[in-house]
Amino acid sequence: MAAVLAGLVLTGCGRGGGNAERQNLDRFTAEEIYKRGEFELENSRRPEDAVFYFSEVERLYPYSEWAKRALIMQAYSNHRAENYEEARSAAQRFIDTYPGDEDAAYAQYLLALSYYDQIDEIGRDQGLTFQALQGLRSVIEEYPDSEYARSAILKFDLAFDHLAAKEMEIGRYYLKRGHYAASINRFRVVVEEFQTTSQTPEALLRLVEAYLALGLTDEAQTAGAILGYNFRSSPFYEDAYRQLRGRGLSAEARGDNWLANVYRQMIQGRWL
Question: What is the pTM of this model?
């Protein structure tokens, strides 16, 4: 096998999969070409080189066991190369072709990861985050006993927090410019839809600020009450308490508004 790999190394010097190289690869078995792909993946700084060989296995031996292995390795190698669309395509083809295979869970995980690894900053289009959440949820729900489920859960929580952070960023923008109603809409989304994320305490504080600015004291006091009930040790609560006291108000549920409803649900154990 070492001699075969050496021969493959010599014939594979030209990158990009030219015709001469394709003709040379025709002389090798599926296993030999696959092993060359592994060699490239381990020793080359260009994962794209490994992709070529794994793709050739699938092209030359399309219905073999090695073709199945090569397909999942195409997804992995493309992901390593940050060719995320190609990684998704290969992973999805594996799932569609081999849905019952033991590597289907890994293919689904790679599919989700190809979206997740593109979430690099809050300001980006959140479409990638939604796609990552959908993919990670599929791993968690369809393969709950797989070794990838735990990692998917952790990444799902981080991606979920990312969406909440985006709402907070926009809400703070509106609040700073005195667009209180618009800011409240954003903070409300965090409290109602992302209440398990790390963004919730600040969202409640900003609701106190926005409602005080509008003179809606019942809502401000209720937001402060929710904050105090769940995050009393948080510096956000200290800030909210200070602002309320400055107006002669206390942190308590008052009135009949959406925050009062959240407070009642929370007391009854259906919130957080």
Answer: 0.77
